[in-house]
Amino acid sequence: MAKTDLAKAMAELDEELVVAGVTEQLAGDVPAIDVLAQLQQGMEQVGKLYEAGDYYLSELIMSADVFSTAAELLGSALTADGASKKLGTMVLGTVKDDIHDIGKNIVATILNCNGFQVVDLGVDVPISDFVAAIKTHKPQVVGMCCLLTTAFDVMKATVAAVKMADSSVTILVGGGPVDASVCKYVGADKYCRNAYDAVAAIRKAVGVN
Fold first, then answer.
1. Per-residue DSSP letters for the chain?
2. pLDDT by residue for the chain (209 residues), tens digit each?
């Protein structure tokens, strides 16, 4: 029987086929790390479809759900294979005076699906919490978001505080009203339009092709 094309099934958001494929490959002694790699290839295809306008936000959220279901099936086999090792770490949060979290949560989920550890600080995050988190977790990347234009100044102050604490950290910003000009105003390193921009930026920051 031909092995299920997991990457294709993942890209097509066929949860039933993904679950069957993961189960089949684990039963056939395919290393969990190889199964995970196929799932991540499928997620990369989802990202390309989203960038091309063929998939929308609903498909993006669905892909994260399918991936999470499949990853649960891998369970302890991932740890045994060493596949749980993360490619890099991001501290992520919605800046103080803003409580919006939908976009932030999507970014966190997609980054997790792509092999990165995300330390999610939540919403309305004080500057001191960002600084404390980078000292504790030593991330390569810090992500900040907001949906309110009134939060731009506190984002700027947060960026300055983070850079003062660790000048080597790459700072990404995003959110509904954020664009390249806001990125320049707050002093961040890169503006991300969506979760897949964030994936590309963190991969570059940690030196992963």
1. -PPP-HHHHHHTT-HHHHHHHHHHHHHTT--HHHHHHHHHHHHHHHHHHHHTTSS-HHHHHHHHHHHHHHHHHHTHHHHHHTTT--S-EEEEEEBTT----HHHHHHHHHHHHTT-EEEE--SSB-HHHHHHHHHHH--SEEEEE-S-GGGHHHHHHHHHHHHHH-TT-EEEEESTT--HHHHHHHT-SEE-SSHHHHHHHHHHHHT--
2. 567 899 999 999 999 999 999 999 988 888 887 888 888 788 888 878 887 889 987 888 888 788 888 878 877 666 555 555 688 999 999 999 988 877 788 788 788 878 889 999 999 999 999 999 999 999 999 999 988 899 999 999 999 999 999 999 999 999 888 999 999 999 999 999 888 788 889 999 988 87
